[in-house]
Specification:
8 helices; alpha/beta; two-stranded antiparallel sheet; Rossmann fold
Amino acid sequence: MRSVLIPLAEGFEEIEAVCVIDVLRRAGIEVVTAGLRPGPVTASRRVVVVPDATLDQAMTRDFDMLVLPGGGPGVENLRADPRIRRLLERYLQPDRSVGAICAAPTILAATGHLAGRQATSYPSARGPVAAAAAAYREDAVVVDGNLVTSRGPGTAIAFGLALVEMLAGRSRRDEVAAGLVLAGSGTGT
């Protein structure tokens, strides 16, 4: 079974994390949420989430993908944690992948991981992301090799589906999309 690690920091964006967790789990992908510290994590709109593990516990395992949710305070807390830099080094390898949504691509920009890449981000994060990336795009989701970036809460389902496609293929992505009954489509695809 394919697996994904999603670190949760105080102030993470609820829609971007929970929506992606849901879409991935609908696809049969194992998702492990990991708090930077033990105990519940409070998101940007005061939703409290109990992670599956601490980040230290999760880092003893191997996953296929690392996904960084956005949210201004959450991203700042992720950026300040040296373990996130180590995880990026570990997961931006040919046999693994990374997803980042909203302001989270600024972490990739700050660590030099957008050099030579195409990326997108939340509009207010455009400056540092555009400066660090080879090309900045305003698409809902940008896939560049083993890196997937997305814009924000309104693109979280599309982001989750892109991650499913990367991990489990187009057919599985289409099955999950059909079950979501997406607006503008009689079949959900």
